[in-house]
Amino acid sequence: MRIGKHKYRRQAQQACRGESHAVMHGEQRSRLPSHILSVVQKAGAVLAPLTLAATLSLGALLPPPAAAITNEQLLYLEAWRAVDRAYVDKTFNGQSWFRVREKALKEAQLTERADTYAEIKRMLATLGDPFTRFLEPARFAALKRGTAGSVTGVGLEVGFDGGDGQNSQLVVITPSANSPADKAGIKPRDTIASIDGHPTQGMSLYEAGDLLQGQEGSEVKLTIIPHGGTNPRELTLTRQRIAFNPVTSQLCKGSSAAATASNIGYIRVAVFSKQTAENVRAAIKALQSEGAERFVLDIRNNGGGLFPAGVEVARMFLDSGDIVLIADSNGVRDSYDANGTAIEPKAPLSVLVNRGTASASEVLSGALQDQKRATIAGERTFGKGLIQTVVELSDGSGLAITVARYQTPNGVDINKVGITPDILLAQAEPQPPTDPAGFCKFVQQEGAPALFK
Prior knowledge:
- The protein is 26% helix and 24% strand.
- By secondary structure, the protein is of the alpha+beta class.
- Among the domains are: 150-243, Roll (Pdz3 Domain); 247-444, 2-enoyl-CoA Hydratase, Chain A, domain 1.
- The strands form 5 sheets. Strands 4, 5, 6, 7, 8 and 9 form a 6-stranded antiparallel sheet that branches.
- Helix 2 runs parallel beside helix 4.
- The longest helix is centred in the N-terminal third of the chain and has 16 residues, at 71-86.
- Residues 1-31 and 43-64 have low confidence and may be disordered.
């Protein structure tokens, strides 16, 4: 149920990651609703001078001299305070956040920068939130670059196989043309068994993205099992700057995936980056001019990206109504709505989703489903209904901090639940390919699964 009617009609820019993933789930600092912005600003503020009060022991005339605070302790305190001010759960996973700080300062040996980073990671782990995490300087810089339309990695779009829960394996959706992965002979549907020695069974797309990406020129070791084979290949690939096209499209003529044969405009959105909304708009207009009667929006294995891009794509298909609700730790609501600028508000629309559909992609699919604008086809989505902001620390490292939660227009909290499809496409059945030409060939064949109600 929706609680309260508070709505602030303002556009904001807030990023949420899903490592694009594929792999890039890119959070960013941006303009937030005022009630959230206030805590974010406080989280990123420079630490105020700290005063240590010495306690008098019995019989002591003067307090002992206070120990000097080291630079490593100051960096730890900077990270602790950022979480203290901005984190969405003010119970901090049912623990005293103050005691976490005091224990670290008293017991942790913070003598080297590596020690401080390790202690910050231990601190964040106590929150039980995999999306609130520490980013070393190189990874923080890579995260900022990733939302701009390029990443530094090996050129893999990855997703899940048909396994469930901890039995899932990371598989290749497609390698980018001329990327290190492509040149090494990695093919679609190959299994990635491990990344730098970390087994991928049960690994999330976000974790995979963190491991696959890194500093340009650095190496990553992959264990690849070719599709249909059993013998693993051990590969060492060198990361490079990968420019990606977030949107591809094609007109599928005479498709049988609808109740009656019709021309379907297929649009594949791989990630929500700065270019996504503009590219989707261009794709819709081009397909309209080619005679598209229905549309399929494919956001399978789209781990999210920039939240505003997801909202803008929803506005292209919705003329009115809520798109997403946002709740912070105080229950304060904000809403993002359609604004009457839709360019395709009526043509039948199907949205393809799977367990790799997360974050901004779930915002989009949830809005189109609740507003009865689209049929959702596929499998239950990932269930990442959280908003992160990124706080840069004084040494160039950073924190991704969960600051709020998404809800669908009907007030459903999708975190750890996901979006349930209207049409279930069982993993045991042949799945529509994600490349436009392959998709068109698939839906034009006799017996293609229905994608529209």
